[in-house]
Amino acid sequence: MAGSTLEIKDLHVEIEGKQILKGVNLTINGGEFHAVMGPNGTGKSTLASAIMGHPKYEITGGSIHLDGKDVLEMEVDERAQAGLFLAMQYPSEISGVTNSDFLRSSINSRREEGDEINLMKFIKEMDGNMDELEMDKNMAQRYLNEGFSGGEKKRNEILQLMMLKPEIAILDEIDSGLDIDALKVVSKGINKMRDEAFGCLIITHYQRLLDYITPDKVHVMMQGRVVKSGGPELAKRLEEEGYDWIKQELGIEDETVGQEA
Ligand SMILES: Nc1ncnc2c1ncn2[C@@H]1O[C@H](COP(=O)(O)OP(=O)(O)OP(=O)(O)O)[C@@H](O)[C@H]1O
């Protein structure tokens, strides 16, 4: 099955009157893994939140299309139903809703009435994925992320990814707070998703993650724009040399979004 295409064109985003994204261009096709790197505060998480429709982020220009459909016209839940998924940098806790119920209702929200996932099939699939992610089965019955450690929350985000099978996923610093073994387990889960029908945008600060998940393309964000794109070798160079060479190459003095280019 051919995958979906997420097309971001000249995206401008403001938060509380401050211009954060200043013209982001990025296209992710099904089957492709893209990594976005960049110094702190350059707008990477803002890009993720804007794609998913966080109300705080005001789109002041540009467009986002999923298979030609205008994502900016969709409500947040419609974006998820259309096949977009965000693993948040800081996953939220929801008291009173078990992990298992949350997953099942999320899956069913993408299905037609009468075509809900069979309970036994759901449990079997969840158990299998939890085994894969080396998660304690008790976590299925705990309230969503409540009291989960940082690493457990990240595994749980990947459990959601594996269960929901979105068309396009954005993983925001999925590697932060993971110990070395957990990093391998989480990467294995993400790699298992590799398929022509699945596209992925991985926001990360570290080449380390990209040793396990080889990206097709690597992009650097500075000052609210994608300023450089390349292959996996770009991430390796950033790890070795930092960002100064890009700033010099492009004549950028301050990489954050607070300064004009
Ligand atoms: N909800 C918000 N309210 C006010 N300012 C915000 C908000 N969200 C983001 N910003 C500001 O927007 C800028 C970009 O933040 P963003 O989190 O997108 O950067 P980032 O590249 O993901 O950084 P990091 O690598 O540190 O996670 C920062 O200056 C940040 O303070």
Automatic annotation (TrEMBL):
It comes from the Bacteria. The keyword ATP-binding applies. InterPro entries: AAA+_ATPase, ABC_transporter-like_ATP-bd, ABC_transporter-like_CS, FeS-cluster_ATPase_SufC, P-loop_NTPase. GO terms for molecular function: ATP binding; ATP hydrolysis activity. The keyword Nucleotide-binding applies. Belongs to the ABC transporter superfamily. Ycf16 family. This is Iron ABC transporter ATP-binding protein. It comes from Pontibacillus chungwhensis BH030062.
